[in-house]
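FW: tagging you since you asked about this chain on Friday. Here's the raw sequence from the shared folder, copied in full. Didn't touch anything.
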Amino acid sequence: MVRQYQVVLDPQRLRAFNIPHGKVIDSIQKANQETGGSVLELAEAEYMVRASGYLQSLDDFRQIPLATTDSGVPVRLSDVAHIQVGPEMRRGITDLNGKERSPAG
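HL: got it, structure written out here
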């Protein structure tokens, strides 16, 4: 499995700080300076296109600033989300008679 950083937002904490989802996404993208990635299909094969960003650890993600409270205290990503490392979403699967098969056969 390919590992990836996962941000699990807490809707109640977002509401408490009045931070929309779009602001979180924008802040992460700006902090990471990562360019877009997607899937390129050529000759019936899929190729993942990615660019690595600056964020290298869970703490890097936790420290991303999202906003400031009225009293001037910064609201960071760790204040409104749980950040974890997990498996990347699988892009495809094969099966035989409804039973999963590994790519090797």
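FW: The CA atoms of residues 38 and 49 lie 5 Å apart.
HL: agreed, and The longest helix spans residues 21-32.
FW: great, closing this out.
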